[in-house]
Amino acid sequence: MPLSLHAAYVPGALQMLGTARHLVDTAEKWCLANGCSEADVIGARIFEDMLPFAYQVKCVAEHTQGSVEGVRQGVYSPDLNPPPATFDALREKLAGAVAFMESLGEDEFEAMIGQPMRFEFKGSGMDFTAENFLLSFSQPNFYFHCATAYDILRMKGVPVGKRDFMGRLRIKAG
């Protein structure tokens, strides 16, 4: 049986949403244990021209839930509103995306295949099919933003490792 679009996209999205949630929880615990302010991590950047931790976490939700909502509408434009400003608000954003992704049925997802899809940003755009948008644009983006959030925590000294990034693995049941 060929791999469905749902199977190729949704489990990985849920895995990275879980990772992002774990990173937020770990950052909060680290802040409390080390007398670091929440704002110091929320606003941390790897480099001044990169977006901060909160934005990276927000983008994991945007490139999962937001991208699928965009496919439903036939066009996706990134949400340029400021990111949530607290750990609790970041968790709420991620929880909404998890609930949304868990609600997606395979039939609906498979019906998206071949639909025209347009990405628009600041007056320019790119045309895709739904599946190519999700797999070649959205999916690399949610992995990138999750990895960048992880990297920011490492830079701050938060003790996270590869297992923290990988999240819940889909291992074969015994």
Short description:
This protein has 174 residues and is mainly alpha-helical. The protein has one domain: Four Helix Bundle (Hemerythrin (Met), subunit A) (Up-down Bundle).
Features:
mainly alpha, Four Helix Bundle (Hemerythrin (Met), subunit A)
Q: Rg to the nearest angstrom?
A: 17 Å
Number of strands: 3
How much of the residues is beta strand, in percent?
5-15%
Name the average pLDDT.
Answer: 95
The CATH architecture name reads: Up-down Bundle
The number of helical runs is 7
Going across the major beta sheet, what is the strand order? Answer: 1-2-3
Order of helices and strands: HHHEHHEEHH
What report would you give on this structure?
The protein is mostly helical and 174 residues long. It has one domain (12-166): Four Helix Bundle (Hemerythrin (Met), subunit A). It contains seven helices and three strands, in the order αααβααββαα. The chain has a three-stranded mixed β-sheet. Strand 2 (116-121) and strand 3 (124-129) form a beta hairpin. Helix 1 packs parallel to helix 6 and helix 3 packs antiparallel against helix 6 (130-156). The longest helix has 30 residues, at 5-34. It starts with a helix and ends in an 8-residue tail after the last helix. The model has no long low-confidence stretch (mean pLDDT 95).
